[in-house]
Amino acid sequence: MFEPRNPRNQPESTYTKFVKYFSLVMTLVYPAIGVFLFFSRPDQVRLDDTTKKILGAVLVIYGIIRMVRVYQEHFKTRNRNHREE
Q1: Domain residue extents for the chain
Q2: Which 8-state DSSP code applies to residue 42?
Q3: Long-range contacts: 52-60, Cβ < 8 Å, 24+?
Q4: DSSP code string of 33-77
């Protein structure tokens, strides 16, 4: 389903490595912000309580979805290609 990132087993470029690790960091940042919003006190974030909980839940779910997509894009396809050769 996904195109191989590095079909000729060439070394990854600096840009590709940066994108891969930045994507991994962001998969942790989104859920962290979501959990913070979900459990924050009213004086920390000036949003309605319902709005904070909904936004926090959306960010956690989005972070999980990104985590799955980053794994599939950067790790799963490469491992599968190495096994096929």
Answers
A1: 14-84
A2: T
A3: 58/34, 59/30, 59/31, 59/33, 59/34, 60/30, 60/31, 60/34, 60/35
A4: HHHHHHH--TTTS-S-HHHHHHHHHHHHHHHHHHHHHHHIIIIIH
Q: What pTM did the predictor assign?
A: 0.72
Task: Report the distance separating Cα 13 and Cα 59, nearest Å.
Answer: 30
Query: Residue 36: which H helix or E strand, with range?
Result: helix 14-39
If we measure between CA atoms, which residue out of 24, 21, 20 comes closest to residue 6? 20
Q: Cα–Cα distance between 17 and 53 in angstroms, integer?
A: 34
26-67 confidence digits (pLDDT tens): 999 999 999 999 999 989 999 999 999 999 999 999 999 999
